[in-house]
Amino acid sequence: MAEVEDTLKRIQGYNGVIGSIVVNAEGIPIRTTLDNSTTVQYVGLLHQLTMKARSTIRDIDPQNDLTFLRIRSKKHEIMVAPDKEFLMIVIQSPTE
Amino acid sequence: MSNTTVKQKRPALKVAKSSKTLNVSSGVFRVNKSISKTINHSFSGKSFSSGGDSRVLDKSSAQTPKHTVQVFDEHGQDVAPRPLYNPDPGVLQPKQGKIFPAQDTSSWTTMTDFPSVAFQTTNASNTGPFTRSFFGSISASRTSQTLESVTDETKDLLVKQDLSNSLSDVQARREEVQEQVREDVLDSVVDCYLTETETIWLLDIPTVSVSEDSEDAEAVKERNNAYTELCKNRLGNDKYVERSMQTFNGAPKTKEVQCDSITMVDKAVMSTIWDMYDSFCNKSDVSGNTVVSDQGNKADVPDSSSMSKLDLNPKGPEQSKSMVSISSTVSGSSAQLEKMACVLLVEEEPDHELILQSDKFKQDLAVMERVILANIFQPKLAAYRQLPVIEDPDCVRMAMGSKNSPSPFLEHLWAFECGLTMGRNVSSMTWNKKNPDLLAVGYGQLDFKDQKSGLVCCWSLKNPTWPDRIFHCESGVTALDFSACNANQLAVGMYDGTIAIYNVQAAEQTPIIDSSDCSKMHTCPVWQLRWIDHESGLAGEDKGEILISVSADGRICKWVHYKCLECVDLMTLKTPDLATNHMKWNRTISALSPGLCFDFHSNDSNIYLAGTEDGYIHKCSYSYKEEYLETYIAHKGPVYKVTWSPFCPDVFLSCSSDWTIQLWRQDLQRPVLCFTSGQKAVFDIMWSPHCATVFGSVSEGKVEIWDLRISSLDPTIVSVTCPGVNPTGLLFTSETDCVLVGDSEGKVTVYKLRNLTDGGSTQVETLEDVIQSTLSSQH
């Protein structure tokens, strides 16, 4: 347990990481370093995108499944680790 | 051809229209045509108001000029266009005024038809019967009129003529008249009249006359006769019967029917390939009593199996309860699945801790961490892996002062360090045999003082900020080696002589096996460990991989793992007696000199070299433990490292605390080359796995890379470390051209060798040449 907390703390401390969010399947944040409104917004939007991505992968091959999703934008990169029970989101901006 | 009445003012309008058309058209003929057309259009309708019309008519009549317009050309001749139609003076013209109030439609039509009649009379030849009948009607109507006022008629005739003249009159006049008329007309009521179209002839076979002299004449005559006969016979003939039919139209009846309103229900099902696959696969699990209450994972199972399966599966009461709750939802959609999952979750308490502690979460966390670090370290890792380093287009990067010097240098990439390792001395480093990205680093003090607990960290290249595995050891770690057969086994040698084998796959802190129970365990620090693959074992010898260790208690031992580690002495490092020429062992005082290092020959695993604290290097045989095969004496201090060249089978290198590195050939008693730079003890050396002439050395405060092609006197690259920090270990990478340097502060720095001349081949010949030349120069 402490290990998990340590890892989460380390992740947040890395260079360029803006925020990290862990939510359960309902969308209730378990751990978040961003404010509530931003968290809710990210979760809502990324949840839908993840569903769509997973649907796409599995439509092509039902035995396949989505393991990781990275969205690179001009300003930062959003990394999503989806799962049935939780959703982990980390937003990182490019390092200089 | 029914003719309907036309309003009185119509003609005025028509006139106006015609005057317009007068302008447009060129020929008089056309004028008439257009007139007739316009008139025909207005042939509609039924009613008209007599009074008003007459008034209008009077006006119009008043308005129509009673004099003809005269046009004169330059010569004064009257060139006024004459009317096309000159009415026959004998023909009675119907009057406008008189006729109208008394009369009905027919007269009007005659008036209106007048121009058309005019038209037709001029073209009498074309439509013979047509005109004739028409004429007939006109004449009939005319006769119906009367002789009442011929004088009036003649007057009107004049008017008529004027009218007719006016048809061909000059435009200007008409315009004015027309303007005024229009004003009045605007206020009045306009009726629209519907007219019947002209008769459409469907069949018009004109009579054909055939001359009597022609050939067909007979046939025609006969036919004619036959026809007349037929006509004659027709009257009384039974062949022809007049018959008429009439169908009765049933009396219609309305009937009303009422029915229940049809309720419409929208139903939607999402059908995707994976949804179908899921339902299909989970179908087999349905019969296996899946507990529905678990997190809704199998919630889709009863859902997809749908109502038909409900009765098939004898489920417990709790399951049936959940089934009931599910049966109300629509089957098959994942959105529904989500909802159901949520519904079920609400029933149980959401356990955040469970999620945080689940394995999947930890895994994902690890992946996420690596991904983040990959982003951060991407250029460094790319340089490490010899991939082209691509600039990140989105981030603003300061132009790094890249060293473009042509001379070779070490480029600092990154350093493995974390809070745990700070302050510890790196004592040994080794790569995993199977996974070239995995590095095991042992931390432990090499001196007898300041002994702390040891630490073994397994670092992954993908995460330079935190080791993947951390093993705490009781005493300082002095030696490490990964097994080649079982790549997950890591042998650790410690300062107190213990040897432990860890399994790095699990994160357990306890080793698989420990040598502390063994009676013959080492009593002094284990300075080197090696897993040796003994394929070519002699009969009776063990085959497979064996762990060999050398320790400061002067023994080289072989460890075998049965139930516990068992130790067999391979060699005891006795001090050779130098007094006599042929090394005679002094049996009385058997002092064992501490062994510091050893290296097995790459080709022949029977032969190995051992370096001792005395400065001797002994060549020994695996199978013969009594005597050395050979002893190489050159060093004046403890030999810290001895390594065979990976390319040249006869050449080996040794380093010692007497500031020297010696290059030997195994058949020569004296070293071939001696390398010195600085006056510091050399702790570690290693041959480069890529180039036969390159090796690296680590001494106090300096990291040196030697390239024998360039110079054998000076190192090619010298990298000075920060003051106070001593590099203690050196490791080349087998895949890329990088070198790792461990120092006394717990950092393992990764450097990239830059601008080191790459000969292409392994330069074995070069090395041999160098050796040859050196030898020849010595003699």
Automatic annotation (TrEMBL), chain A:
<comment type="similarity">
    <text>Belongs to the GAMAD family.</text>
</comment>
<dbReference type="GO" id="GO:0005874">
    <property type="term" value="C:microtubule"/>
</dbReference>
<dbReference type="GO" id="GO:0007018">
    <property type="term" value="P:microtubule-based movement"/>
</dbReference>
<feature type="domain" description="Roadblock/LAMTOR2">
    <location>
        <begin position="4"/>
        <end position="92"/>
    </location>
</feature>
<dbReference type="InterPro" id="IPR004942">
    <property type="entry name" value="Roadblock/LAMTOR2_dom"/>
</dbReference>
<keyword id="KW-0243">Dynein</keyword>
<dbReference type="Pfam" id="PF03259">
    <property type="entry name" value="Robl_LC7"/>
</dbReference>
<dbReference type="GO" id="GO:0005868">
    <property type="term" value="C:cytoplasmic dynein complex"/>
</dbReference>
<dbReference type="GO" id="GO:0005737">
    <property type="term" value="C:cytoplasm"/>
</dbReference>
<keyword id="KW-0963">Cytoplasm</keyword>
<dbReference type="GO" id="GO:0045505">
    <property type="term" value="F:dynein intermediate chain binding"/>
</dbReference>
<dbReference type="InterPro" id="IPR016561">
    <property type="entry name" value="DYNLRB1/2"/>
</dbReference>
<keyword id="KW-0206">Cytoskeleton</keyword>
<keyword id="KW-0505">Motor protein</keyword>
<keyword id="KW-0813">Transport</keyword>
<comment type="function">
    <text>Acts as one of several non-catalytic accessory components of the cytoplasmic dynein 1 complex that are thought to be involved in linking dynein to cargos and to adapter proteins that regulate dynein function. Cytoplasmic dynein 1 acts as a motor for the intracellular retrograde motility of vesicles and organelles along microtubules.</text>
</comment>
<protein>
    <recommendedName>
        <fullName>Dynein light chain roadblock</fullName>
    </recommendedName>
</protein>
<keyword id="KW-0493">Microtubule</keyword>
From TrEMBL, chain B:
<dbReference type="InterPro" id="IPR036322">
    <property type="entry name" value="WD40_repeat_dom_sf"/>
</dbReference>
<dbReference type="GO" id="GO:0120293">
    <property type="term" value="C:dynein axonemal particle"/>
</dbReference>
<dbReference type="InterPro" id="IPR050687">
    <property type="entry name" value="Dynein_IC"/>
</dbReference>
<dbReference type="GO" id="GO:0045504">
    <property type="term" value="F:dynein heavy chain binding"/>
</dbReference>
<feature type="region of interest" description="Disordered">
    <location>
        <begin position="291"/>
        <end position="322"/>
    </location>
</feature>
<dbReference type="Pfam" id="PF00400">
    <property type="entry name" value="WD40"/>
</dbReference>
<dbReference type="InterPro" id="IPR001680">
    <property type="entry name" value="WD40_rpt"/>
</dbReference>
<feature type="repeat" description="WD">
    <location>
        <begin position="632"/>
        <end position="664"/>
    </location>
</feature>
<dbReference type="InterPro" id="IPR015943">
    <property type="entry name" value="WD40/YVTN_repeat-like_dom_sf"/>
</dbReference>
<dbReference type="GO" id="GO:0045503">
    <property type="term" value="F:dynein light chain binding"/>
</dbReference>
<keyword id="KW-0966">Cell projection</keyword>
<keyword id="KW-0206">Cytoskeleton</keyword>
<keyword id="KW-0969">Cilium</keyword>
<dbReference type="GO" id="GO:0005858">
    <property type="term" value="C:axonemal dynein complex"/>
</dbReference>
<feature type="compositionally biased region" description="Low complexity">
    <location>
        <begin position="44"/>
        <end position="54"/>
    </location>
</feature>
<keyword id="KW-0282">Flagellum</keyword>
<keyword id="KW-0677">Repeat</keyword>
<dbReference type="GO" id="GO:0003341">
    <property type="term" value="P:cilium movement"/>
</dbReference>
<keyword id="KW-0963">Cytoplasm</keyword>
<keyword id="KW-0853">WD repeat</keyword>
<feature type="region of interest" description="Disordered">
    <location>
        <begin position="44"/>
        <end position="64"/>
    </location>
</feature>
<protein>
    <recommendedName>
        <fullName>Dynein axonemal intermediate chain 4</fullName>
    </recommendedName>
</protein>
